[in-house]
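Q: Got a minute? One more chain.
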Amino acid sequence: MGVIATNDREIKFYYSSVTSIGKQALAYVQASDKKIMEVDIAKTKVTGTQWAELANHLDLPLHKLIDTQHPDFIAAYGKDPDIEDPHDWLKLLGNCPQAFQRPILVNGHKAIQITSPSDVAAFLDTES
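A: Always. Here it is, folded:
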């Protein structure tokens, strides 16, 4: 059992309110009939354990949660950082949350990374 409690009747939505995709996808999530737990990473610190669990839900390595082309990431870590250790990626997410790549939607034991706001509607349609 992980630290992120899952429930088929509740959506957990991890996003950044400073990105347009985050704000647009949030509107789709809010249109759902399900209970919603919003986690705005621009305002709420997500723990390393939670980041690791989200990556595990998505079946992705931690570095895939980060936009390594984001200007803040490049300013802090350079264009081609040599980061091998997953724990370093966790620290990076904690120190540079603005480089969080795309919103993540968790519903029950399923999770997706949102590339387009319409992904939310498609995902929720398959869950109905």
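A: The first strand starts at residue 10 and ends at 15.
Q: Perfect, thanks.
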